[in-house]
Amino acid sequence: MAASLIPTSFLVRRLAAGALALCLGALLPLGAAQAERIKDLASFTGVRENQLIGYGLVVGLDGSGDQVRQTPFTQQSLTNMLSQLGVTVPQGTNMQVKNVAAVMVTSRLPAFAQPGQSLDVVVSSMGNAKSLRGGTLLMTPLKGANGQVYALAQGNLLVGGAGASQGGASVQVNQLNGGIIPDGAIVERGVPTTYAQNGVVRLELNTSDFGIAQNVVAALNRKFGAQTATAVNGRTIELRAPSDPKAQLAFLSQVENLQVGLPPARARVVVNARTGSVVMNRTVTIDEAAIAYGNLSVTISPQQQVSQPNTPFGGGQTVVTQNTQIEMRSEGGAIKRVTTSANLADVVRALNALGATPQDLLSILQNLKSAGALRADLEVI
């Protein structure tokens, strides 16, 4: 049995050049102009979705439902539902119903939704049911944050997973304890949507950026006339819309589809410490630096030796001795020069020349940031 202890190195082997090359193919050159539609950058205040949630029962399962002894709320919910349908269950009855599962049902109520409109719902088991495959959700009220019912859900579940078990062996593909019902809910009540107050409509940018806000204001004023748009702050923009509702809809449609030039994004490197993935935008640069790296590996191999000497009077006493071998191996370090990189392509070439892997790139970028050679914000998630 061997155990290995390998501390994080300063720099390492190879960057996933293929993955980064694929990312580079979709990126624009540093000096190229970039434009986006306003509908991709912002949304109108008041035009939003609302979350809905409900608790219900799924029936028709093939013996894969909740175990009643471990999930008493399933039996209680089933008893209450039967009583509402005119079926009385005597108290103390031990119901062994394996074809029923308690579930949570969620959905989203879109803006401007009207009664009769259909919604997709997501159904998730909250007990110990083995599978919801083949089940049917019974009528479930979906409530908003204010406790009011806005939709009713019911229908057959669509479960993307599959599984089988026999003789103690089992196989499963994807998740079996959750599914969806396309158009499984019907809206019973709409939510009033107000997006214009006294002829003023507010735009909210998806991210706070004074440069983007200024460009949006300038584009709107060029298109519709001066004083049409005013930036309140780096996220909110006020628009003076026509008072006529028909003209107002046409105006907002043109606003959404207006192209806006974007300033260069703030240089940022995002590292996922759990998966080792590294993503950097096109404004990242590296200053000239010299880096030394090397690996130190320590291997500990414990072994047990058993000795039982023979004696004239019979078997001797068994002796177990511990023999541990420790091996230390250090790879030769080197000092390598990283030249100044003016764009993302140069950054990738510089890191590839060092021979860095994505998993070890975190420590590399941290050291470059500490030395002041990385011209970007480093974010670890």
From TrEMBL:
<keyword id="KW-0966">Cell projection</keyword>
<comment type="similarity">
    <text>Belongs to the FlgI family.</text>
</comment>
<comment type="function">
    <text>Assembles around the rod to form the L-ring and probably protects the motor/basal body from shearing forces during rotation.</text>
</comment>
<dbReference type="Pfam" id="PF02119">
    <property type="entry name" value="FlgI"/>
</dbReference>
<keyword id="KW-0975">Bacterial flagellum</keyword>
<protein>
    <recommendedName>
        <fullName>Flagellar P-ring protein</fullName>
    </recommendedName>
</protein>
<keyword id="KW-0732">Signal</keyword>
<dbReference type="InterPro" id="IPR001782">
    <property type="entry name" value="Flag_FlgI"/>
</dbReference>
<keyword id="KW-0282">Flagellum</keyword>
<comment type="subunit">
    <text>The basal body constitutes a major portion of the flagellar organelle and consists of four rings (L,P,S, and M) mounted on a central rod.</text>
</comment>
<keyword id="KW-0969">Cilium</keyword>
